[in-house]
Design a protein that fits this description.
About 25% of the residues are buried. A hairpin with a 2-residue loop joins strand 4 (about 160-165) and strand 5 (about 170-180). The protein has three domains: about 5-125, Arc Repressor Mutant, subunit A (Orthogonal Bundle); about 135-220, SH3 type barrels, CATH 2.30.30; about 240-320, 2-Layer Sandwich (Alpha-Beta Plaits), CATH 3.30.70. It is about 40% helix and about 20% strand. The protein is flat and about 65 Å long. It has helices spanning about 5-15, 20-25, 35-50, 75-85, 90-105, 120-125, 140-155, 225-230, 250-255, 280-290, 300-320; strands spanning about 20, 55, 70, 160-165, 170-180, 185-190, 195-200, 205-210, 240-250, 265-270, 270-280, 295-300. With about 325 residues, the chain is an alpha+beta fold. This is WYL domain-containing protein. InterPro entries: CBASS_pafABC_assoc_protein (IPR051534), WCX_dom (IPR057727).
Length: about 325
Amino acid sequence: MPNFNKLVFLATKLASDNGVTIQELLRDESLGYNSRSSIYQDFRNLEISFGLTPYNTEENRGKSGREAVYRIDKDEWNKFKSGFLTKTFSGKERRRLAFMLESIGSLSPLVNVSTDDIIPKLNSIIGDISIDTAKFGGYFNLETTKFLDILLEAQETKELLYITYGGDRRDLFVIKCFVFSGGTYCYVMDIKGKSYMLSVQRIEYVERKLLKNNIPYPTPDVDIDKALSDPFGIVRENEEFDAVVKLSDGQGYYEKEKLWPDSVNIEKEDDHWLFKVHTCGEYWLIRWVLSLGTEAELLEPQWLRDKIKEEINSLAVIYQ
């Protein structure tokens, strides 16, 4: 049985600017392909379930089967997503599905915001297909899901909400809800346009204003598209910087196959790779480099390299 998440993630890769090769799909552990035939079968599933046809590109001349680049038309993919969401779904279901589609196509897992009646409706549109959802345990409970529904609606309608967070109750507009590193977050702003980033799991209460307000929707002080294109920085208070990470040959191939945003550039050198990123995410970049052990070395900037050295020295003291 075809898997919805897998097909959406595959379509996202195929619709990227560079397309994707069979070799890259086979090496991507998150997709779990073990043969070319299994990939070609999902190409057929994309055509049957989504009406999208992967195609060879002109650059394939003279290349072997595994090195051939495949794509789908990006406009057709966007048209499918927008048209797909208008079919038979209520407003709440449509907003939840749009949120799910975004989280599948990012580096984050799919949030479990589906309901019992959504999956049968999906099956009626795209056929008999399995759908995986990631659960957040007690942190993502029914109350939090209810808050997310209100936040997603307010994001669409530009409605002003009362949001209680950290003991403070404030009037806030919702700019964007999104998933990052297993957590669910939202950018909000006050009536003057000053933006804040909140963890949805830590929101204490959300309520609608009983009376219609005449407060105009302000211009946010954050570029949301730019903010969400940073794979390491969801907190915008930090200053942006350029970083270069040296990756081992094997790790570089693995990272190259991931669906990184445009702010990342990965270049092949003689016996290693250079991972270049423009980011404001000091904390998450340090954690990522350390998680790769000897497979990664931060080369630039020097001040961040010094911080990583301090982290390693602190760990050495703990484990003496």
